[in-house]
Amino acid sequence: MSSSSTKSPNLNTVTTINRDGSRFFIHPADVSGRFTTWRRFSAILLIVVYVALPWIPINGHPAVFLDVAHQRFHLFGLTFAAQDAWMMFFGITGLAFLLFFVTALFGRVWCGWACPQTVFLEHVFRRVERWIEGDATARRKLDRADWTPGKAAKRVAKHAIFVVFAAAIAHIFLSYFVSIPGLWGMILESPQEHWSAFLFMAAATALIYGNFAWFREQLCIIICPYGRFQSALIDNHTYNVAYDYNRGNPPGKPRDPNAGDCIDCRRCVQVCPTGIDIRNGLQLECIGCASCIDACDNVMDKLKRPRGLIRYATDEQLEGRQSKLLRIRTLLYMLFGLVGLVVAGFSFGNYEPLTARVVRMSGSPFYVTETAVRNQYQVRLINKSEEPMRVHAEITAGDQPVELLGLVDAVELAPQQETSATAVVVVSREDYEGSFRFELVVYNDSGAEIRQQIEFLGPEPQLLK
Ligand code: SF4
Ligand code: SF4
After folding, report:
1. Where are the domains of the chain?
2. CA 458/CA 428 separation, integer angstroms
3. 272 C-beta closer than 6 A to ligand 1
4. How do residues 351-373 score in pLDDT, each as one tens digit?
5. Which residue is closest in CA terms to ligand 2's atom 8?
6. Domain 354-464 has CATH 3.60.20.30
7. Which residues have C-beta atoms less than 6 Å from ligand 2?
8. Quick check: helix, strand or coil at residue 293?
9. pLDDT tens-digit map of 93-111
């Protein structure tokens, strides 16, 4: 792992790029304080949730299980087939707008507090690095030092642990798609039996390792799309990590009567994981981690000055004006978010364990015999429950006499079974008066019911006379 810490960052551009264009490798200093403590608790909780979800069985499946092999999504006891993806669309869209809502209110709290990139980097990989190589000063010194057996041993140990953690994260991620027993079965067998999963695992491990060992904050600065459009989501009323320039400027020595409260100690810069100086105002690189708040609060405590020179504040508040929580953008984001979640919640509430999808059979849309006009359909039936199911079908077409052939007898479906049946709808030539719509009702013995409107097609009636 090369480091460029011997060089200085180009302070006029991106802080992680040296003046010669090479990478300036950041080693943020340790920090303690209330936000750091709360972030650590939140990170531990999120990691526990991430690791535990595939292990918690609900209705015979992991709590969250995207069963790729059977094209099913198991979510806290509910099972969704591919046809139910629209429900997930509304749920995900609702959550996205709620994220916009939270961003409009509190800036990049997601990035600093809950994003997997920050959680794993700050609370797993950087902790390992700190444990093996020491604090930021020691790490920078080690970067500059010549290669010795001691340096090599530290680097090998660090990267070996990084690879183990990267592989663990990748394995847990894969278990969301193949389940823990499925993953365990793959681990016990030769990679040749599961080439695709093995390659996915190897690639994911390499990516995760490369990201957390080297790429780090560059992902937030260069790649993450959410970081790019945060400026479109926030305004002067958004709470961001902000430096109170009215109180802090001009920076100066503690005893300087003309100086503000900032003593220019640069602790806020030293602890910043993206290497920026928050005193220059909100910047794209700021992930809202609040480390600089804790760092500056500690300095203010030592100086016996009030905390909050750097704090969560809006631009309006820094200018001495009132901030508004409810604005058009926050109301709209909240509205769209709630609409998405209400629709998804309503859909989940009316969730049927039976799916029936009807498609017209390929070939001619209708057949005319000596006595009747026929339409043929393929009915795809899915039992999404963990119980056996008997499925029946009926059709109604108002006053139009119709007959259903095929799918007349009940279809027995085992738990999670999917099958196809042919439904033939027949109208006698005497009763046929042109195309019409009918309703196919598919139901089971437990009352689950799917209704679908279908077009019956045929020739012009006069052609049959
Ligand atoms: S930590 Fe506080 S006092 Fe020190 S430079 Fe940053 S803003 Fe100024
Ligand atoms: S400026 Fe402060 S809140 Fe923003 S990334 Fe740096 S330390 Fe975190």
Report:
1. 34-76+108-231, 236-318, 354-464
2. 12
3. no
4. 888 988 899 998 889 999 999 99
5. 289
6. no
7. 241, 271-274, 276, 278, 286-292
8. helix
9. 999 999 999 999 999 999 9
